[in-house]
Amino acid sequence: QVQLVESGGGLVQAGGSLRLSCAASGRTFSNYLMGWFRQAPEKEREFVAALNWNGRSTDYPDSVKGRFTISRDNAKNTVYLQMNSLKPEDTAIYYCAADSRRIHWPTSRSLFQYDTWGQGTQVTVSS
Fold first, then answer.
1. Are residues 6 and 117 in contact, defined by beta-carbon separation less than 8 angstroms?
2. Per-residue b/e over 92-116, b at no fewer than 16 CB within 10 Å?
3. Would you state the pLDDT for residue 91?
4. Reported confidence tier of residue 105, pLDDT bands at 50, 70, 90
5. Does pLDDT of 4 surpass 80?
6. How high does pLDDT run on average in the chain?
7. What does the CA dihedral 58, 115, 125, 14 come to, rounded to 10 degrees?
8. Which of 75, 79, 98, 104 could form a disulfide with 116 if both were Cys (CB 3.0 to 4.6 A apart)?
9. Is the pLDDT of residue 27 over 80?
10. Are strands 33-39 and 92-99 parallel, antiparallel or unpaired?
11. What's the CA gap between 90 and 30, in Å, rounded?
């Protein structure tokens, strides 16, 4: 059973940066598609970034493209989300997600692709 634990959230001023981390348990982490999603109050959970198993394929929505970068260190069983040029509209709870049912799967924006989720970490961007 894979477990995910996020960290690195906090309060930052607009234009600032944060790096989120997601530590995963499980010996086969390196085979998994990994993603980041976020959910603001009274809004649906939305896709933020995805990274395939070997780190060579990424996907971002236009809202964060060029500002956010997803990466992974398979030796440390950790995936990261570097967030730069943060805006107040980036304020949300950020969730790490994994597709642990399939190996070597391409990136996906659908939250239904992912079967394992972390508990979330709050990111607040002040104006």
1. no
2. bbbbbbbbbeeeeeebbeebebbeb
3. 98
4. confident
5. yes
6. 95
7. 0
8. 98
9. no
10. antiparallel
11. 28
Q: How far apart are CA 70 and CA 79, in angstroms?
A: 7
What H or E segment, with its residue span, contains residue 5? strand 4-7
DSSP symbol at 30? G
What is the per-residue DSSP string for 64-127?
TTTTEEEEEETTTTEEEEEE-S--GGG-EEEEEEEE-SSSSPPP---GGG--EE---EEEEEE-
Judged by phi (left if over 0) then psi (alpha if -120 to 50, else beta), residue 20 lies in: beta
Per DSSP, 26 falls in state S
- Cβ neighbours for 65, distance < 8 A, ≥ 6 positions apart: none
- Please check whether residue 16 is in contact with residue 106, taking contact to mean a CB–CB distance below 8 angstroms: no
